[in-house]
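Deliverable D4.2, example record:
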Amino acid sequence: MIRQAILKELARGGQIFFVHNRVETIGSMFDRLKGIIPEAKILLGHGKMREGALEKVMIDFLGKRADVLLCTTIIESGLDIPNANTIIVDRADTFGLAQLYQLRGRVGRSNIKAFAYLLTPDSKEITPIAKKRLSVLKRFTELGSGFQIAMHDLEFRGAGNILGSAQSGHINAIGYELYVKLLDRTVRKLKGAAVEEEINPELNLKVSAFLPEDYVPDTSARVELYRRLASREETADLEAMAGEISDRFGTLPKEAINLLSMMEIKIMATKLKIRQINFDGTQFSCQFDQSTPIDIEKLLKELSSGKVGYRIYPPDKLLIVAGNVEGDEEVLSAAKNSLSALFSYVSH
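Output generated by the structure prediction step:
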């Protein structure tokens, strides 16, 4: 296959990168390639060569005085050789996803169709995570797929020390989706785009809302479910997750049902731009962000007519009388009903 790939590129007057990322064995790979395709002129380049010698190799290859450049990952970035439109990566299963994407990007830098060949051993020798990396790279081949690949790379490797007070955690500490969301917001800020402040409502409703250990015994599974629930933005997504959880772990216990109701309230509060909701046993106290979509003037008119059980405390608090509610289910139901009613005051 190596010979065929090289001959195919040579037939159209192009050049080839052959990446072998072990300096200790790159010499023997050079001899092997000479045996596979003796008619091709092969140059050898790696980071442990003297600077002048490596520079000469690169200039010769750029000047089309060789057909194949056998090298380590020194070509990973910053190299633009339009005439090189085939790359062969030896033991691709040992590379990271971002590395493979960068290497693949070394070819196809002109209007000529490019080819990337990833050489791997027998599938039994490839680790499961390596198989996932190769699968992602195979799936995302179109122009502009770098962001998708980068997200998968973050998911596989973790985010490293970008976030966290000790700056030593992985992406699992905050959640993959949250990390990507924060990253997207930061990029938009750097570009000078208007970025709306995100509201993360604090709910103090004094109810038991959690996933019991005897229901989801595995700690990592519970953490993952909490993370996914917290990142839902629509109630339909919560309903889908409720079905998934019950399928996996059985009938939802009371505490888990309460947790789903809390997440639904949080979604509603986020849309209404409510920063905090407290319940004291008889009424809900809501603290609004100044960007709330609720038409305060319309709400004040209702208050003056005595039609609703609301009291406003400037500049940003609203008290909602709940009446006599007892038990977690009633409290959560009253909270949802109260927020649902507030949507009628949203200005469109």
